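Tutorial handout. Part one gives the primary structure; part two gives the three-dimensional structure as tokens.
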Amino acid sequence: MRIQKTVIALALAGAAFGAQAHKPWVLPSSTFVENDREAWVTVDAAISEGLFDIDHVPLKLDGLTIIGPDGATLEPQNVANGKLRNSFDVKMAKNGTYKIALVNQNVFASYKVNGEMKRWRGLEANMAKEVPADAQELKVTRTSSRIETFVTANEPSDGVLKPTGSGLELVPVTNPTELRAGEKATWRFLLDGKPAANLPFSLIPGGVRYRGTLNEVRFNTDAKGEITFKIPAAGMYVATASWPAPQAQGSQGGQQQQPPARRVTYSGTVEVLPE
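Part two.
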């Protein structure tokens, strides 16, 4: 029973963005840089109790990919591993919009060997050799997560906004570095390249420690996986979504909820500029 609960907790961890949950995030120093010479941004990566607060542990940079407006993959500069956060710089040598993403896929398994419960976490490629072939009561959950942000040097572009076709992705119709308070924005969510219809997602602004309330705003996509909405105030936000959507307590008729066979999560940091 304890092992099963642990697997459920691990599988749902990426979707837990409530007021009391530790939240993984990446935060650029700016999302729109105007500079005639060299454009740079510094990106912090951490897991924290308060959104964008540096108060817990650093977020590992495994799976980090930086894609430039021309489709080229860039290397992070000046990587620093800290006690409470990791950070790196991005040199934006070309004008346009860049995507900075941490994409990871893992497998969680629980099973019995000679009557003793075991659990395992790792990569799909290692599962066959690390989990015994004769394991009993094997339960497997596959997870994929995307944590990302977008930054622009001088002029926005849309090359990096094209989907990869894997996992849960935000495909902004409105460039995410051109968001302004009070103006309409249109977003599209895709799951493995197909419209994520009726997908619930949340927008949470930073600064919770100064407000004392989360101020989470919730939305749902339409049948095409799209939504057009207004953001009421300027600031840094994180957009979060997960599939399948977490079920409310009691929705199983008193039965214990089983871990899903697959859990996909998304978290994207965007900046909303003043009107």
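Part three, for discussion. The mean pLDDT is 88. The two ends are 53 Å apart (CA to CA).
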